From TrEMBL:
Molecular function via GO: DNA binding; DNA-binding transcription factor activity
Keyword DNA-binding found: yes
Record-given protein name: Crp/Fnr family transcriptional regulator
Taxon lineage: Bacteria, Pseudomonadati, Pseudomonadota, Betaproteobacteria, Nitrosomonadales
GO cellular component: cytosol
Alphabetical list of InterPro entries matching this protein: cNMP-bd_dom_sf, Env_Response_Regulators, HTH_CRP, RmlC-like_jellyroll, WH_DNA-bd_sf
HTH crp-type domain sequence ranges: 149-215
Length: 237
């Protein structure tokens, strides 16, 4: 259920926080604050986009559908981004499955209201065009990563990305879900996670992962994590 939007302002989504105050307040007037539930599917591929989401302390997995499996993760959206950015291209159909991976708050706005506000705010349009470029670049980076990099390095990258989105050192995730998201066998995830745990980089117990050594995790991660961060810093900041 929607809750008071006044609570949102101190924790604002980074895209919206970058707007001039007038544009920011005007946008908030058309939004509602909602609680996103774990494993809630916000979009299915090919489905009409009814709402646009700006995560606050939640994060959303973007996965492309594959035959006989849940899907291969192509990106994560946290409070640095938005869900529904394809509307910027005049396309109101979701290209990917959007699954809530980290429950929490988000700002939600209907598609008609979003498009109306977008027409009225050149600052919002400029910010979201930049974000669209970043998201496309990161999805392309993920595709290359899935093809060429080893499971342990990809897992380390994924854990770093999730820590960034969750703003926490601890989060809940199963080996089976990780295997689906990374497109590998469950035994490969178990082996990679055990390797990281044996080096005291992470602690993994009953689906709860705690990052103990972020620097060690960055050292294990492939270069794709740094590339993702660099493209965001170069374009958005």
């Amino acid at each position: 259920m929607p809750v008071s939007i006044a609570q949102t302002i101190p924790i604002a989504n980074r895209l919206l926080a970058a707007l001039p105050r007038k544009d920011f307040v005007r946008f908030l007037a058309d939004c509602e604050e909602v609680e996103l539930a774990l494993k809630e599917v916000l979009y299915y591929p090919g489905e009409h986009i009814s709402y646009v989401y700006f995560p606050i302390n939640s994060y959303i997995s973007l996965a492309t559908p594959l035959e006989h499996v849940t899907g291969l993760e192509m990106g994560l959206v946290g409070n640095e981004g938005m869900l529904g950015v394809t509307l910027m291209l005049g396309v109101d159909v979701a290209p990917l499955r959007a699954l809530v991976q980290g429950p929490g708050l988000a700002l939600r706005i209907t598609t008609p209201l979003f498009l109306r506000v977008l027409e009225q705010s050149s600052a919002l349009e400029r910010e979201l065009k930049r974000y669209l470029y970043v998201l496309i670049s990161q999805i392309a980076q993920t595709a290359a990563c899935n093809r060429f990099h080893m499971t342990e390095a990809r897992l380390a990258r994924w854990l770093l990305m999730t820590q960034d989105k969750s703003h926490s050192n601890t989060f809940h995730i199963t080996h089976l879900f990780l295997a689906y998201m990374l497109g590998v066998r469950r035994v490969s995830i178990t082996k990679a996670a055990s390797s990281l745990q044996n080096r005291n980089i992470i602690n993994y117990q009953r689906g709860n992962i705690t990052i103990l050594d972020r620097n060690g995790l960055e050292a294990v991660s492939c270069s794709c994590y740094r590339s993702d961060k660099e493209i965001y810093q170069r374009v958005m900041v």
